[in-house]
């Protein structure tokens, strides 16, 4: 009798797959991509993924049996596994880490996983006996680990039971706490059915001849009802000029009825509308894109802000859907998805599924299954970077919107992939096409297009031929000297704001620091309160009257006196969004000011609430950090102000200038999108800076050429590849010795191309000291051999007993 074995990928940072033995019927039933529960280590249970089924026993260790099989059909498909292997090889991480990053955590049950009951679940009749036992136990205990479940059932094989409870939504995996969402209900008015005939209406108006206001309300109702649209109670009050109590009395008389319509984002009812007809420039771009797709798999669309790129995407998407294939639409920011969902749903209705980290585990599991089974409601996937891991079976098109965005790069935890690059490989595996769109393409993509590696299409007219905004630079140094500053606003900026407000237009103000002020300083002795765990000063948040570290979330109350010298002359330096918001409230007390940054968009619907309020014109001035710069589309914004352009330029990074250019052009692209030309005002201490001059003329090619020259001169991408190695440990001396040893070892292999060792700007975070080494790889040097050499050095490094506890992080293409 032959023995059967399977190789499993375990969700752990292990370099190899791990072999377990199975019986013959199990081997016949199992397929690549199914999950099995196994024990690994002394007591731990993990969910492994079948990678291989064979009959060769491993020679180096004794094989264990598996506990049980968790799937009827594979959860992960063949193409996905190939893609994972590419990611693991290219980004120098292990398959286990890619597996862990890819699957929603509800699929990765472990002995330590905590489950909690779903309070909304009531259909106990659909539970089997064992499931009911667990469900009952959960009535007494709010949460259980898988270990405890095993004790309750008195057996080891509990994973399938827990699995099916999750499927039936009786329990949740305790991961993060999700904000429960109350759908927004809007109150509408309709006429009671008794009054549908004409006679009844006449009697009604006679009855109301005395109640003048009520009669007016009814007449206004008929005027509004000619449009055949549902009538909002708010609109009726407004047009008839009556109060809410009048409507209520009409409802009490059984003349009107109130009913509520839920305005919710996930349920999309209603017909799908026809796509907009493109204007000639968009049409031309569309034809050019299709033309390049005949020769190239990837195409870069360089379309200036508000040129209507989304409309071009929709046409391409429609063609791919007609061919019966799936579409992946990647977006850099969750904030962006809220707007684009509404836009695309308008055309494609319920063929869209959304996938990103603010969705609950159960919602993500659902999307996974829908994509795997190629259901119609998952024909278009809209998502942030993690959606490149979904189990697509016949992908036809990938759209990467705002492809220059740094948010596409994952920094922690491993795999540190770039979703744009991973998507290009994914498209190749599926023989699909990929379109990269941006108003400010990254230098690498533009370079690839210039080198004829990608197709290239330009769209340089704004939709409706609105002109690009007028950009003016305001010299703050000069304004300070002439005492023309009020707080952080120059007189010119305030004048522009006032003009826009008088015209009833909206304003976006951009400041890339959150909180009230980044530094608190004692005037007497000059000491600033610092974070005990990180080498950074604490940021002052006024609304909570506390100091906070933006690296590790340490917080403490704002002290009344200096901790060093005891004097109470604490002063704040620098400014963040919160301070701007408060200053605006003083300067423009009659207008609504909103703020959008990490602190105000914590919950699942944080973004939506703010963006919704701004779209509904409930907010006049919106202050925010860089989340505002990304592809959002507001009709009524006529002015965009950048309060301090210099923080972005003076940043120790070889991409600082390119990024500052991108960000300012993107944020100015939010102005004047619908009818008339918008204004952009940029406050800076150095208006003659090259980048700012290029922003003011929106001259991308000039910026590209200059930056490219610098990159060539100083040996940076796109010419040289970069691999960054970071060491972290609590003990400074350990890191220091480790990094010096490593530098010597790397230097013998790569010589001059090793930079370092350096400490980053914030050299200690969460009590871990950090040291970096950067390896540059010249254009002719083989990437694979370089990586193999680095891995070799890493293995030697980790074999040294003193160095073993140091965290060793490799980041390929670390930018």
* Biggest pleated-sheet summary: 7 strands, parallel
The 3D shape can be described as: globular
Low-pLDDT runs of 5+ residues are: 175-183, 263-271
- The fourth-level CATH homologous superfamily of the largest domain is P-loop containing nucleotide triphosphate hydrolases
The class by helix and strand makeup works out as alpha/beta
The Rg value, from CA coordinates, equals 30 Å
Q: Based on DSSP secondary structure assignment, what is the total number of beta strands?
A: 37
And the CATH topology of the largest domain?
A: Rossmann fold
Helix content: 25-40%
Could you report the average pLDDT, rounded to the nearest whole number? Answer: 87
The CATH class name of the largest domain reads Alpha Beta
Q: List the strand order in the largest sheet.
A: 15-16-14-17-18-13-19
* CATH architecture annotation of the largest domain: 3-Layer(aba) Sandwich
Summarize the structure.
The chain is an alpha/beta fold. It is built from 26 helices and 37 strands. Helix content is 35%, strand content 22%.
């Amino acid at each position: 009798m032959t023995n059967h074995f399977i190789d499993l990928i375990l969700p752990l940072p292990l370099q190899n797959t791990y072999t377990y033995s199975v019986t013959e019927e199990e081997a016949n039933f199992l397929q690549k991509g199914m999950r099995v529960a196994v024990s690994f280590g002394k007591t731990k249970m993990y969910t492994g993924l079948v990678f291989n089924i064979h009959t060769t026993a491993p020679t180096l260790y004794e094989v264990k049996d598996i506990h049980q099989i968790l799937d009827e059909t594979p959860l992960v498909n063949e193409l996905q596994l190939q893609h994972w292997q590419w990611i693991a090889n290219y980004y120098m991480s292990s398959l286990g880490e890619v597996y862990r990053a890819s699957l929603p955590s509800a699929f990765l049950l472990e002995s330590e996983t905590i489950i909690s009951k779903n309070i909304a679940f009531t259909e106990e009749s659909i539970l089997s006996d064992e499931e009911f036992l667990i469900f009952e136990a959960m009535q007494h205990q709010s949460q259980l680990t898988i270990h405890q479940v095993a004790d309750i059932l008195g057996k080891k094989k509990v994973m399938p039971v827990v699995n099916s409870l999750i499927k039936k939504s009786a329990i949740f995996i305790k991961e993060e706490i999700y904000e429960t969402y109350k759908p927004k209900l809007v109150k509408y008015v309709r006429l009671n059915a008794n009054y549908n005939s004409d006679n009844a209406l006449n009697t009604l108006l006679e009855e109301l001849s005395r109640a003048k206001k009520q009669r007016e309300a009814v007449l206004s109702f008929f005027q509004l009802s000619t449009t055949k649209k549902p009538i909002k109670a708010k609109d009726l009050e407004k047009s008839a000029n009556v109060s809410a109590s009048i409507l209520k009395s009409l409802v009490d008389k059984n003349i009107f009825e109130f009913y509520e319509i839920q305005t919710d984002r996930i349920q999309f009812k209603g017909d799908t509308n026809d796509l907009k007809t493109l204007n000639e420039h968009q049409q031309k771009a569309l034809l050019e894109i299709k033309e390049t797709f005949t020769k190239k798999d990837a195409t870069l669309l360089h379309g200036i802000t508000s040129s209507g790129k989304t409309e071009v995407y929709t046409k391409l998407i429609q063609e791919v859907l007609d061919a019966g294939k799936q579409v992946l639409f990647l977006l850099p920011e969750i904030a962006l998805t809220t707007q684009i969902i509404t836009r695309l749903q308008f055309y494609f209705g319920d063929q869209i599924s959304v996938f990103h980290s603010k969705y609950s585990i159960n919602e993500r599991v659902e999307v996974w299954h829908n994509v795997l089974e190629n259901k119609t409601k998952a024909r278009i996937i809209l998502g942030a970077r993690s959606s490149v891991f979904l189990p697509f079976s016949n992908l036809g098109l990938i759209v990467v919107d705002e492809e220059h965005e740094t948010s596409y790069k994952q920094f922690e935890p491993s795999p540190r992939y770039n979703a744009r690059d991973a998507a290009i490989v994914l498209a190749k595996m599926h023989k699909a096409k990929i379109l990269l769109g941006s108003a400010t393409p990254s230098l690498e993509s533009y370079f690839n297009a210039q080198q004829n590696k990608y197709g290239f299409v330009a769209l340089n007219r704004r939709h409706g031929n609105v002109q690009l905004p007028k950009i003016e630079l305001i010299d703050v140094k000069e304004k300070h000297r002439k005492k023309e500053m009020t707080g952080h606003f120059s007189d010119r900026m305030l004048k522009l704001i006032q003009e826009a407000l008088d015209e009833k237009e909206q304003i976006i103000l951009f400041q890339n620091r959150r909180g009230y002020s980044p530094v608190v300083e004692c005037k007497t002795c000059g000491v600033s309160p610092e974070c005990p765990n990180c080498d950074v000063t604490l940021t002052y948040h006024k609304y909570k009257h506390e100091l906070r570290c933006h690296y590790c979330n340490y917080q403490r109350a704002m002290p009344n006196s200096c901790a060093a010298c005891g004097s109470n002359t604490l002063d704040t330096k620098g400014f963040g969004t919160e301070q701007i918001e408060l200053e605006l409230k003083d300067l423009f007390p009659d207008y609504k000011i909103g703020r959008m940054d990490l602190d105000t968009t914590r919950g699942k619907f944080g973004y939506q609430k703010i963006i919704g309020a701004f779209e509904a014109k409930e907010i006049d001035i919106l202050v925010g950090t860089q989340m505002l710069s990304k592809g959002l589309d507001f009709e009524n914004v006529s002015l965009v102000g950048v309060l301090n352009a210099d923080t972005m330029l003076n940043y120790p990074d070889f991409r600082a200038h390119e990024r500052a250019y991108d960000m300012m052009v993107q944020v100015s692209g939010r102005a004047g999108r619908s009818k008339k030309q918008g204004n952009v005002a940029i406050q800076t201490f150095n208006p003659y800076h090259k980048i700012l001059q290029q922003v003011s003329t929106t001259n991308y090619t000039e910026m590209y050429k200059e930056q490219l020259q610098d990159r060539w001169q100083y040996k940076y991408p796109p010419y040289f590849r970069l691999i960054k190695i970071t060491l972290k440990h609590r003990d400074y001396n350990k890191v220091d010795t480790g990094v010096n040893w490593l530098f010597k070892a790397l230097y013998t292999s790569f010589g001059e191309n090793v930079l370092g060792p350096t400490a980053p700007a914030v050299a200690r975070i969460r009590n871990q000291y950090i040291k970096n080494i950067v390896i540059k790889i010249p254009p002719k040097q083989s990437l694979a051999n370089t990586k193999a050499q680095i891995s070799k050095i890493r293995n030697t490094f980790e074999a040294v007993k003193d160095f073993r506890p140091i965290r060793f992080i490799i980041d390929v293409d670390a930018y």
